[in-house]
Specification:
Blueprint: H1 12-23, H2 35-46, H3 52-63, H4 68-83, H5 95-115, H6 121-134, H7 139-168
Length: about 180
């Protein structure tokens, strides 16, 4: 728990609510949850940064969750962020990884703004008018739609990373984080 990058409340129920909110665990899975579940969710958050022995201990802790639906959700999130894609659980990123992610998305955002590429409403209306008059979507339309999609995706990812940084309130520089 000390290695978590979050300032958690003192009581168990509030800790569960905050961790569930951060990790997108449905609240209905927390009915009857207590200290073991808080520890298991903390282990899930830190899992991808653990060595082999620590992971064995963390899995034992996670498997001690009595609610099978919650057990499945916690186990799935721990394994997905470790072995599939850490971005699926931005909460699993270390502070350094999170700050690097923010820096990357901000640099793309700055470049897009500098070059002047943007998804303005006026140009969007022009494309819709053009497509409507031609009755088909041409290559230039698809290109613009893809560019706009990438810009929107980048802004979404940047906002997600900044939101996670805000969740952490103050960066915990000890341990893994």
């Amino acid at each position: 728990m000390n290695s978590l990058p979050y300032n958690l409340p003192k009581d168990t129920k509030s800790q569960l609510e905050k961790l569930a909110s951060i990790t997108s665990i449905p609240r209905n899975l927390l009915v009857g949850a207590g200290e073991i579940e808080v520890q298991a969710i903390a282990a899930m958050i830190l899992y991808r940064h653990m060595d082999r022995l620590q992971r064995i201990e963390a899995l034992a802790l996670i498997r001690s969750i009595s609610n099978k639906a919650l057990l499945g959700a916690v186990l799935e999130k721990a394994l997905d962020t470790t072995f599939v894609n850490s971005q699926w659980g931005i909460w699993s990123l270390s502070n350094e990884e999170l700050l690097s992610d923010i820096s990357f998305h901000e640099s793309i955002d700055s470049f897009v703004g500098y070059v002047g590429i943007g998804a303005s409403i006026v140009s969007g209306k022009d494309i819709v008018k053009d497509i409507w008059s031609l009755k088909k979507v041409g290559k230039k339309h698809w290109t613009l739609i893809i560019i706009w999609g990438c810009i929107v995706f980048n802004k979404t990812e940047l906002q997600k990373a900044k939101s996670e940084l805000n969740n952490r309130q103050t960066l915990n520089q000890s341990g893994l984080y």
